[in-house]
Structure formats: C-alpha cells, structure tokens
Amino acid sequence: MNIGITVYPTYGGSGIVGSELGRELANRGHNVHFIASALPTRLTELDERVHFHEVEMMSYPLFEHQPYDLALATKMATVARSEKLDLLHVHYAIPHSISAILARESIKQKRYVPVITTLHGTDITLVGADRSYLPITRYGLQQSDGVTSVSKFLKQATIETFDFDEIEVIPNFICPKHYRRNADLPLRAELAPNGEKLLVHVSNFRSVKRPVDCVEILAKVREKDANAKLVMVGDGPERSACRYRAEKLNVKNETVFVGKQANISDYLGIADVFLLPSELESFGLAALEAQACEVPVIATRIGGIPEVVTDGETGFLSDVGDTQKMSEDALKFLKDEEMRLAFGKKARSLAVSRYSSEQIIPQYLRFYEKILSLSEKKQMQNA
Ligand code: GMT
Fold first, then answer.
1. Is 120 a pocket residue for ligand 1 (Cβ < 6 Å)?
2. Is the Cβ atom of 318 under 6 angstroms away from ligand 1?
3. Going from the N-terminus, what domains does the chain have, and what CATH number goes with each?
C-alpha cells in the first residue's frame, strides 16, 4: 500500500505512535509518506520506503495567523495524487482529520483517498471537548472513512462527548527488541554512582502529567530510604515548577533533570520504578514502554491507564494527587528486590503478549483493508 501519515512531529505521544507505525509499515513492505510541518522526532532515517513531505507555509501580511490547516490540506492532496496514496492516516483529530477530509474532497473526482483518523487523547478529552472545537471535531469523526482510538476508555469518552460510536480500538504498541531491560548500561553508573535506586519519569512536562507530584513522591520516599533518586526525562512548561518544588523539599541534588532525550529506552532500561502521576491519560504510552523494560509502574487510576497497568501485578495505581500512597507503593519496590523483579517480569510479559508491534500492526493493516473495501463499495454505488 501507499500510505500517507500525518502527525504532530515534535510534541507528544501521538507523534511517536504515528512515526513508529510508519516505520513498522515500511518494514513490512509498504510505502509510507509522512506529511507534516517538520520531520517527526523519532523518524531519524528516511529510506526508499519512508518519505517525508514538508508542509510549506506562505507568509503573507494579511494573515495574522498562518492557516496551517489549509496548507496541510493542500500538501495532502498534492501528495495523494503524485504518490497515488491508497489512504491518508492522521494521528490526533484536530486539525488533521479536517485537513485530510478537505484534501480528499478536493481531489475526489480524480481519485478517492479514504481518511482514517486515530484518536489519541486530548484531541477528544480536552481540545475536542472544548466548545470552540467540539462541532468541527464531531464533523471530522463523522466524515472520516474510519476512526480508531488507542484505548477502550477513549472510545467511551468519544461516545459520551460526541455521540459517535463507529470506533475500532487499536491500542498503542512497543517494539520488544527496542524496549528491554538494560541495567548494565554505563548510564546507570553515571546516574547512580553509589548504587542509588532510580525512580524515573518521562513526559512532556505539561500540567496534565503532574510532574511536580514526582518530586513530592521522591521527598516522601527519601524520608524512609535515603538511597532514592529521581530522574526526570523530557521538558515542558512544568519543569521550573518541579525544580522549585525540589529545592523547597530539599531534594534538589537528588532530582536530576536530563531534558529531552532521543534514547528514552536507555533511561527506562536502567530504571527501578517508573512514575506516571497524570491527571488524565487516555493510554499512557510511557508506562507501556517502562513495563516492556521490566520496570514496575506507579501511576494514577485514570483514563486508559488501568488497561495498560495491572494494579497489584505490574505496578500500583492510586487516586490523582495521592502522593502519600504512591510513595508507599514505590517504597515497597525499593525495599523488596524480589517483588520488584517479579512485577517487572510480569510487566514485560504482559507488554509483549498484548502490545507488541507483532500483535498490533496487523490490526492496523486489517483495519486499512476493511476501510478500503468499504469505500470502494461506496464509490461503486455512487458511480
Ligand atoms: O499527553 C501527551 O503526551 C500528548 C498526547 C498526544 O496525543 O500527543 O498523548 C496522548 O496520546 C498518547 C499516545 O496515544 C497516549 O499515550 C497519552 O495517554 C495521551 N495523553 C493524554 O491523554 C493526556
């Protein structure tokens, strides 16, 4: 197949999933055309099957705000025709599904290119649910040829907010070869030179991730185990609030901010416990990546997290903001190595058996085939 994929290239889980999906599809012999404003961060290499088409923006004094959605639609239509795309698969509804529908409609006399929209989370739960975007998001869902969501929770949230239920749940995935335990890396010696225990958090430091709670958890853990350290991977708006809290709680020297990293799997591969105290999470990709690296997860019992983290088996779940319980749960792992290892093994085995790319990519391919055959039938009826 010739597949067009659009993602937000630099920020957030939806871009990661879309990019990894493209790479996996190319590995299986498909031609993948990324259409985005910049090269997606996880897409470091292009080859004969992975192409990148940059959305060009014309700057014009009349445009106070550049109409990116229209430039994207134009690029999608151009690429769809020149590369004979079979379908356009967009990640994150706003504005990608609207641009794709516009592209499809603008060229449909020559070639009908079905649009598949994958919902990731805040496109439904925050942005899409806001009154200013709700009607256009609903239109995007209704007009897409196929819609998928990354969790059962997100499907249900979409039904409730948009009264739209034609959604196939296809969960996020990991490559088990890439995400694996690697505790002997020199990185471990660098971050824990005196055998410290490492609590690791990975996110884009938006307030919805509650990264400050990680610092609270560390401070509470250190009251009982002075050997614990916190490694904060990523960057974003809450980073300075985290630093400030670390200073206030006297754990500044034990909280290491390593910023954005390309090699997330290295940090997860050496972690002892992973922290994800989010306020909202439709899936929690970082928790899945951690589990694939045999790292037990301390997270909140919200959104799609309970679909990914099995409370009492692969980690422990708490109410949002309950840093006391989260710190007690983290301590259980730090104190009992046998238990930590057992949870880690179970976490890896569930991650691989339910969410490996070997399981999930065929689900996308079957969905593509279903949508292509349905839209072919529709075209024949309309002809
Ligand atoms: O929260 C983010 O990091 C950004 C956001 C996105 O769409 O880029 O992430 C969402 O999609 C991820 C991949 O499907 C999910 O793992 C995250 O749970 C989800 N974030 C939220 O629901 C807050």
1. yes
2. no
3. 2-173+357-382 (3.40.50.2000), 186-355 (3.40.50.2000)
